[in-house]
Amino acid sequence: MFRHTLNSVPGQFIMLWIPGLDEKPMAVAQDDGKILKIGVAKVGRFTTHLFNRYKVGDRLGIRGPYGNGFKLPESADPNPRQRKRIALVGGGFGTPPLVFLAQEARKKKIEVDFIEGARSADLLLYLKEIKKLGVRVHVSTDDGSEGFKGYAPQVLEQLLEKNKYDGVYSCGPEVMMKKVAELASEYNVDCQLSLERFMKCGFGICGACCMDNTGFRVCIDGPVIQGEKALKLPEFGNYSRDSGGNKK
Amino acid sequence: MNLSIPFCNIDFPNPLTVASGYLGVTGASMINCVRRGAGSVTSKTVFMEPRMGHPNPTVLTYEGGIINAVGLSGEGIHQASGEIAVYKKGCENPLIGSVGGKTAGEYAEVARLMDAAGADIIEANISCPNVEDEMGRPFACDPKATAEVTKAVRRATKKPITVKLSPNVANIGLIAQAAEAAGADAITAINTLGPGMLIDIRLRKPLLHNKVGGVSGPGIKPIAVKCVYDIKKAVKIPIIGVGGVTTGEDVIELMMAGASLVALGSALIYRDLEAFDLCLEEMRKFCRQENIDDINDIIGAAHEGN
Question: Where are the beta strands (DSSP E) in A67-204?
Answer without folding.
Answer: 85-91, 111-118, 136-141, 148-149, 167-171, 191-194
